[in-house]
């Protein structure tokens, strides 16, 4: 597939007198979802003709079709084979000057993807291509058959198959039908072309369809009807659901939940696909927000045909077998162009439609509206049905039917942007995803490699978890070998344990970028995979995805990990008196992430946001909202007003996304999102009234510590970063909030009664003069207190710094550590001032007796 002939026939380059045709012949890396493209160009050369081009490998195989394609079933059109063209030629439109080969106007007539069963190069050599086109004007089945006619160039016949897309029309007739006004060329993208859009034919050669003006009023009427229906849902809001929204992700469970609060869907084995329909234009995205709009035109066309102009869809892109089961291998073959099976977009949620945000409506209501929108007859779009209740029975039945598992969802839950416990995944076999870090040489008749070496993110970077040597067919071996060959490196990404039965010198190391899904039967005593078998490459995931999904502690993942997040307006002054800018705030939180994340990871948060800086209007936010970032997660929590989405994070990316949204203070719950009803931290906030000096505040903290010890509870001390101190009590999460609140109230009241000249346990400011308010109200469900190492939104830029009890006497004030000094303290620390707080096993006194 050499492009030498293409170069020989043209004067390429930037010099005067050169042809404007593309000269960038080297194709760059493409999207994981790149499918082979086709393009048809109308060429007004000395003899007007159509150029028909199919991507095979890194070139466009090309034929000149003098009369253009015919859409009549069985009608044959001469197609003369010409030289291969570079992929970047798919985006070319313009005038080739006189005196150059092919002089004349070139316009893009149609563009899209194509596929066939089997290897296209083998079919090309055999002289018969039987394929399908997915374009704007040309669709359905076609054939190219090589003839025995003699001539200077090889001659073929282009024939339309008899299918639903066959019609009594010529290619010229379709010039009157509108093509896509702007289609990003996959091939052009992969070739790193400077132009990345394809336009329809020039206005002089293509007039708008006569039906176009009437379509807009009909669409407006349809949207008005759907707008009314959507607004009728509970908690619907009369505002469009945001485009580019983050998907809801699943939690994991070993067993299917039971009860009427749950519905159960099939777990489809494909690629997560998000669709934004806006003003009739469709954008398709992967779960990682890669733009897949042009890779699946048949899906885009099906979505555009819905009876609305605005919708947000969430679903899975799959290929189904004869039994209705999703087949991931078949999906990969369709994507690489070696299979013609139809794609299915199975849609399971609808957070927005017709300009209405219905994300807070109960799931069951959203799904009912979704089913009506898609319709009962499955096609390219299909509705993901469900079963109410009976989770264990549904899970068992899914296994007998050969499905991978089920997804169970709470029927009344809102749509959350991020991982939430209202969606859980239950699978029939244990699988996980790991990074490929190397491979061993093949043995016997096997080609390519023997086994893959796998690793997982760990606190030290990557940890070796074992080898995978089974689960590969010949096609997988060839594809993986080609990918591994491009990633070779002399340095090892992991250190091999001493007990592995091979030497590191025998390993071919690769850069840890490929993500593999592996089935296995638990873990061996050395921490290695047992009976591992390769399932597939996850081309829709990257190494950072494993870090965010990892079960390792968030602080461990944060250490040494620089965030790629760009902070906007880093020059904005946040602390005017200290002249501290937003960029410096971000640098502080990035550096302090290993200390801060253990305090807040996996806990509902209240955020103090100051968009205009300290001294201007600031506000608290506890509910999740759009724009916070995809690493800022939502957890649905039951409140008196109903289920509400609260904010939480679990990694440094989420922390910095909060800073990007002008968050200064972080106030976590005293419980985790995994167990929000049982607190594991109590906080007594010592708030001094007028006339109370720092020495008295320190004495009060020591007094409270001693009184807690009398009840059997150890505690830890923290500077508030403002005026007072916090005494923090860790607990085993056994007591509920009512019990915790009752204990804290009784404790504070007892202190106030014992020493009324020193303490008060009521909020009334009139009673605080000269005494310390022991704020025990921080220990109610939903109440929060500032976390260790958080900045405070005060002029001094103080930090809430944790101390060892023996350090308290040497500290001069509650805001003794502004930002710069807090950083310096953290660098000097040789250990955690609160060492042992996570391992201390203590419960409320009433539960311990």
TrEMBL record:
Q: What is its EC number?
A: 6.5.1.1
Q: Where is the composition biased (Low complexity)?
A: 199-217, 550-563
GO BP field: DNA recombination; DNA repair
Enumerate the spans annotated as ATP-dependent DNA ligase family profile domain: 345-441
Pfam families linked: DNA_ligase_A_C, DNA_ligase_A_M, LigD_N, LigD_Prim-Pol
Q: Which UniProt keywords apply?
A: ATP-binding, DNA damage, DNA recombination, DNA repair, DNA-binding, DNA-directed DNA polymerase, Exonuclease, Hydrolase, Ligase, Manganese, Metal-binding, Multifunctional enzyme, Nuclease, Nucleotide-binding, Nucleotidyltransferase, Transferase
Q: Report the catalytic activity.
A: ATP + (deoxyribonucleotide)n-3'-hydroxyl + 5'-phospho-(deoxyribonucleotide)m = (deoxyribonucleotide)n+m + AMP + diphosphate
Q: Which GO terms describe its molecular function?
A: ATP binding; DNA binding; DNA ligase (ATP) activity; DNA-directed DNA polymerase activity; exonuclease activity; metal ion binding
Residue ranges, annotated region (Disordered): 1-33, 183-223, 540-563
Q: Which cofactor does it need?
A: Mn(2+)
Superkingdom of the source species: Bacteria
Q: Entry's PANTHER family?
A: BIFUNCTIONAL NON-HOMOLOGOUS END JOINING PROTEIN LIGD (PTHR42705:SF2)
Return the protein name. DNA ligase (ATP)
Please name the taxonomic classification of the source.
Bacteria, Pseudomonadati, Pseudomonadota, Gammaproteobacteria, Lysobacterales
């Amino acid at each position: 597939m050499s492009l030498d002939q293409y170069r020989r026939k043209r004067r390429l380059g930037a010099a005067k007198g050169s042809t404007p045709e593309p000269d960038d012949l080297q194709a760059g890396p493409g999207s994981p979802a790149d499918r082979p493209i086709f393009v048809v160009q109308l060429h007004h050369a000395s003899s007007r003709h159509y150029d028909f081009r199919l991507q095979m490998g890194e070139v466009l195989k090309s034929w000149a079709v003098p009369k253009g394609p015919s859409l009549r079933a069985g009608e044959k059109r001469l197609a003369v084979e010409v030289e291969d063209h570079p992929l970047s030629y798919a985006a070319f439109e313009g005038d080739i000057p006189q005196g150059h080969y092919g002089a004349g106007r070139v316009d893009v007539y149609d563009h899209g993807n194509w596929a066939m069963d089997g290897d296209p190069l083998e079919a090309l050599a055999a002289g018969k291509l039987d394929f399908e086109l997915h374009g704007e004007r040309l669709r359905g089945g076609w054939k190219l058959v090589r003839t025995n006619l003699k001539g200077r160039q090889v001659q073929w016949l282009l024939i339309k198959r008899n299918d639903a897309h066959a019609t009594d029309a010529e290619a010229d007739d379709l010039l009157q039908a509108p093509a896509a006004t702007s289609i990003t060329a996959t091939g052009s993208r992969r070739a790193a072309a400077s132009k990345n859009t394809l336009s329809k034919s020039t206005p002089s050669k293509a007039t708008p369809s006569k039906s176009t003006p009437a379509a807009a009023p009909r669409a407006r009427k349809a949207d008005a009807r759907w707008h009314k229906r959507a607004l009728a849902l509970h908690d619907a809001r009369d505002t469009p659901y945001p485009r580019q929204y983050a998907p809801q992700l699943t939690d994991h469970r070993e067993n299917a939940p039971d009860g009427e609060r749950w519905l159960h869907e099939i777990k489809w084995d494909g690629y997560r696909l998000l669709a934004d329909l806006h003003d009739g234009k469709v954008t398709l995205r992967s779960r990682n927000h890669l733009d897949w709009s042009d890779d699946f035109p048949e899906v885009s066309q099906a979505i555009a045909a819905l009876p609305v102009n605005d919708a947000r869809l969430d679903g899975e892109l799959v290929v189904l077998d004869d039994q209705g089961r999703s087949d991931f291998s078949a999906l990969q073959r369709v994507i690489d162009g070696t299979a013609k099976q139809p794609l299915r977009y199975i849609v399971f949620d609808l957070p927005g439609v017709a300009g209405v945000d219905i994300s807070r409506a109960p799931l069951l209501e959203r799904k009912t509206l979704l089913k009506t929108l898609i319709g009962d007859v499955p096609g390219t779009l299909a509705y993901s049905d469900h079963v109410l209740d009976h989770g264990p029975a549904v899970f068992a039945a899914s296994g007998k039917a050969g499905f991978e598992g089920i997804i169970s969802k709470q029927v009344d839950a809102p749509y959350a942007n991020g991982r939430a416990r209202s969606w859980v995944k239950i699978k029939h076999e244990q699988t996980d995803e790991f990074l490929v870090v190397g491979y061993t040489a093949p043995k016997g008749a096997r080609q390519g490699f023997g086994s893959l070496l796998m690793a997982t993110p760990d606190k030290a970077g990557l940890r070796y978890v074992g080898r995978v040597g089974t689960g590969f067919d010949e096609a997988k071996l060839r594809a993986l070998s080609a990918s591994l060959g491009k990633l070779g490196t002399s340095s090892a990404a992991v250190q091999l344990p001493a007990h592995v039965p091979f030497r590191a010198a025998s390993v071919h190391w690769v850069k840890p970028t490929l993500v593999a899904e592996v089935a296995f039967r638990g873990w061996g005593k050395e921490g290695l995979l047992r009976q591992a078998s390769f399932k597939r490459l996850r081309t829709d995931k990257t190494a950072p995805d494993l870090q965010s999904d990892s079960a390792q502690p968030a602080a461990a993942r944060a250490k040494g990990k620089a965030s790629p997040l760009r902070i906007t307006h880093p020059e904005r002054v946040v602390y005017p008196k200290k002249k501290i800018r937003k960029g410096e705030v971000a640098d502080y939180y990035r550096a302090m992430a290993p200390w801060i994340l253990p305090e807040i990871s996996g806990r509902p948060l209240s955020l103090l946001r100051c968009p205009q800086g300290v001294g201007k209007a600031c506000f608290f936010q506890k509910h999740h909202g759009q724009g916070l970032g995809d690493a800022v997660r939502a957890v649905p929590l039951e409140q008196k007003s109903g289920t509400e989405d609260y904010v939480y994070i679990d990694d440094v990316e989420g922390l910095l996304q909060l800073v990007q949204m002008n968050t200064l203070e972080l106030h976590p719950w005293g419980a985790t999102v995994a167990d929000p009803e049982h607190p594991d931290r109590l906080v007594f906030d010592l708030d001094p009234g007028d006339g109370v000096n720092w020495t008295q505040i320190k004495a009060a903290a020591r007094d409270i510590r001693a009184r807690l010890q009398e009840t059997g509870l150890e505690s830890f001390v923290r500077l508030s970063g403002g005026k007072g101190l916090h005494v923090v009590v860790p607990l085993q999460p056994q007591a509920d909030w009512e019990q915790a609140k009752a204990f804290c109230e009784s404790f504070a009241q007892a202190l106030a009664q014992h020493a009324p000249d020193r303490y008060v346990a009521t909020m009334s400011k009139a009673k605080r003069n000269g005494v310390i308010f022991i704020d025990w109200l921080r220990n109610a469900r939903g109440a929060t207190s500032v976390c260790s190492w958080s900045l405070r939104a005060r002029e001094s830029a103080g930090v809430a710094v944790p101390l060892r009890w023996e350090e308290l006497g040497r500290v001069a004030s509650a805001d003794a550590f502004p930002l710069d000094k807090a950083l310096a303290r953290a660098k000097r620390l040789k250990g955690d001032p609160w060492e042992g707080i996570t391992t201390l096993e203590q419960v409320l006194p009433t539960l311990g007796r």
